[in-house]
Amino acid sequence: MKKDFYKELEEKGFLIAAHRGSFGGSVIDNTELSSKVALAMGADIVEMDVIKSTDEVLYAFHDGEEPRRFGIEENIKTLSSKEIDELDYKNVLGEKTGQRVNRLEDLLLSLKGKCFINLDRSWDYLKEVFELVKKLEMEDQIIIKTHPTDEAFDFLTKNENKLMYMVIASKKEDVLKFMVPEINMVAAELLFESEDSEVIENEFLNYLKNKNIKIWINSITLGSRFNLSAHYDDNLSILNDGEGWRWLIDKGVDIIQTDWPALVKNYRNVL
Predict the structure, then answer these.
(1) 143 has which bridge partners?
(2) Do 118 and 145 touch, CB atoms closer than 8 A?
(3) Residue 84: enclosing H or E segment and its boundaries?
(4) What gap in Å lies between CA 18 and CA 35, rounded to an integer?
(5) Is the CB of residue 147 less than 8 Å from the CB of residue 123?
(6) What is the helix (H) or strand (E) element at residue 223, kind and residue range?
(7) Is 127 helix (H, G, I), strand (E, B) or coil?
C-alpha cells in the first residue's frame, strides 16, 4: 500500500506523530512493540531514533539512555552489533524484559505500508539511511529530519534520492535555507519557547503553507528543562481539556508530535 502524505493530511486535518512510538510499563520505546501500540492508539506517524554500531549496523535507539535502559555506562554507539544484540531492555520498574534493541531494517519492515515514519537523530548516517530506505522501497513512508547544518544541506542537495525531508529550526533563516528545488522539503519542525517567537508568527506560517511546507510542532513534555512549544504541551492539554493542542491547532499546525496519540486522536475526533 502506497502512502500519500498530502492526501492523508487533507483527509484528517492534522496528523498525529507518536514520539518513539507509545511506551510504558514493559513496552519499550523505539521498538516494534511501541510502534504497534502507537498505531493501535491512532498515530499516523511513528517517530524513532537512529544509531549505528561500530560495525556499521543501524539500530533504533536514543543514545544517552543506556544506564536507564540497560544498566550500563557505555554509549551504545561504541558497541558492536554483537554486543548490542545481547543487550536486555529494562522496563520502568528496572526489571529485565528479555526484549532486544531493534535493528532499524527489521523495525522499518514491520511498519511497511502501515504508517509514515519520522527518523530522528539519523543525521550522522544519512548515506546509510537513504540506501536502506531505497533498498526497502519505503520512500513514500519515510520523513528524514536534520538540524539546519551545512553538512545536511550539501548531502540533501546532491543526493539523487529525494526522500521527504523536514528541517528542525527555531529561526526563520534556517527554514528558508532548505527551501530549494533540490530538496524534497515537506515540513518544518518549529521549536519556540514563547508565543512571540519569529518562527510561529502568523505571517511566516502562512508563507510556509503557501509553499506547501507543513508545520510540525512538538507537544511532548520532556521535562522541566525543555520548552519546545511555549509550554503548549501534553501536560497542559491533559490537565486543561486540550488547551495546548487547541492553541496549536488554532495556529494551523499540520502535525502534532505527542506521547499520548490516543488522547490527541480523541480530541481530533470531536473538533
Answers:
(1) 118, 164
(2) yes
(3) helix 81-85
(4) 8
(5) yes
(6) none
(7) helix
C-alpha–C-alpha distance, residues 268 and 90, integer Å: 34
The answer to whether 226 touches 193, Cβ cutoff 8 Å, is no
Q: Which amino acid is at 271?
A: L
Quick one: cell of 14?
Answer: 492534522
Helix axes 126-136, 150-158, angle to 10 degrees: 40
Q: Are 43 and 261 in contact (CB under 8 A)?
A: yes
What is the C-alpha to C-alpha distance for residues 77 and 4, in angstroms, rounded to an integer?
A: 34
pLDDT in tens, 89-127: 999 999 999 999 999 999 999 999 999 999 999 999 999
> Cα(220)–Cα(135) distance, rounded to whole angstroms?
32
Cell triple for 17: 506523530
Give me the residue label for grid cell 545481547: 86
DSSP secondary structure string for all residues of 134-180:
HHHT-TTTEEEEE-S-HHHHHHHHH-SS--EEEEEESSHHHHHHT-S
Whether the pLDDT of residue 87 is over 90: the answer is yes
User: What would the pLDDT profile of 35-58 be if each residue is shown by its tens digit?
Assistant: 999 999 999 999 999 999 999 999
Residues 264, 261: Cα–Cα separation, whole Å: 5
Tell me what the pLDDT averaged over the chain comes to.
97
Percentage of the chain lying above the pLDDT 70 cut: 99
- Rounded-to-integer distance, Cα 227 and Cα 124, Å: 25
Question: Look-up: residue for cell 529525494?
Answer: 162
Q: What is the largest CA-CA distance in the chain?
A: 51
Residue closest to 146 by CA, chosen among 127, 166, 164:
166
